Amino acid sequence: MIVVKFGGHAMQDENGAFAKAIASAQHDGVALVIVHGGGPQIDAALKEEQVTSEFVGGFRVTTPEIFEVVERVLANEVGPAVAKALQKAGVNAVALSGRTSESLIAEPLRQLVDGTPADLGLVGVITAVNPQAIKNALKGGQVPVISPIATDESFKGGLNVNADLAAAAIAGALDAQSLIIMTDVAGIYRSWPDNSSLISEISAKELEEIKGTFAQGMAPKVQACLDAINSGANAVRIIDGTDPSAFAAALANNGGTLVTK
């Protein structure tokens, strides 16, 4: 079982390399679950509606107005589009909303990765994963494509969950062999943007000790690595999803930054 976070500019998949690699892995008998992001698509939708948004510590501050756009873009547009692209490559993919499938249950997130208190609005931190809908899809030979929108603990409202952290929670709940996080950089850097500081392999213990040094978009990815390991995943690999060969290499346990127990 491998959980894949598909996000950032990697989602353009202009040459279909991601879909082909997923099809090849599924053909080889690998059980796969995909959790997608959609930051660029959300940015475009908010711009079109002339709604401004800001990021704090790598998280998008989410007002009720912004949440409505985020949920629509992720669950009704991006998820189905990713599933459709996979289907064209011969993958039996199905789009699932973490909220409507009740797979992801969350509470409001009240602090950043470094522990700083923050009011982020309708941003959630996952408190439970109900894997039933995901497991049913897998049993049916499907590849679930999950939108990182969660239901709140009353099952009445919704929360916007960072896709890296959603993928980590799902990987832990499914006891995944590994979590692959596709992003826009080659891995975790000790001193970004110094390319020579790329970490090829690091233990979760060491990463925990230095996690407070990471800023903005990398902070939730680092936390996702730690969350996934702590909740049951065996390993996490962060790769450059914009490199067509990187995902196939990651499936073969190569490239990027590997975080181990």
UniProtKB/TrEMBL annotation:
Residues 1-240 form the Aspartate/glutamate/uridylate kinase domain. Gene3D superfamilies: Acetylglutamate kinase-like. It comes from freshwater metagenome. InterPro entries: AceGlu_kinase-like_sf (IPR036393), AcgluKinase_fam (IPR004662), ArgB (IPR037528), Asp/Glu/Uridylate_kinase (IPR001048), Glu/AcGlu_kinase (IPR001057). One of its GO terms (cellular component) is cytoplasm. GO terms for biological process: L-arginine biosynthetic process. This is Unannotated protein. The keyword Cytoplasm does not apply. GO terms for molecular function: acetylglutamate kinase activity; ATP binding. Keywords: Amino-acid biosynthesis, Arginine biosynthesis, ATP-binding, Kinase, Nucleotide-binding, Transferase. Transmembrane segments: none annotated. Pathway: Amino-acid biosynthesis.
